[in-house]
Amino acid sequence: MHFSIPETETRAGDGATAAYVAYNIHVNGVLHCQVRYSQLLGLHEQLRKEYGANVVPAFPPKKIFTLTPVEVEQRREQLEKYMQAVRQDPLLGGSEIFNSFLRKAQQETQQIPTEEVQLEVLLSNGQKVKVNLLTSDQTEDVLEAVASKLDLPEDLIGYFHLFLVREAKDGAFSFIRKLQEFELPYVSVTSLRNPEYQILLRKSYWDCAYDDDVMEQRVGLNLLYAQTVADIERGWILASKEQHRQLKSLQEKVSKKEFIRLAQTLKYYGYLKFDPCVTDFPEKGCHVIVGAGNSELNFQVKLPNDQIKEGSFKVTRMRCWRVTSSVPVHNGTSGPAAGKSEVKLELAFEYLMSKDRLQWVTITSPQAIMLSICLQSMVDELMVKKSGGSIRKMFRRRANGALQRSDSQQAVKSPPLLDSPDGNRDSITKVASKLSSVSLRAVSHSSSATNIGANDFHGNYAFEGIGDEDL
Question: In what order do the strands lie in the sheet with 173-178?
Answer without folding.
Answer: 128-134, 116-122, 197-203, 160-167, 173-178
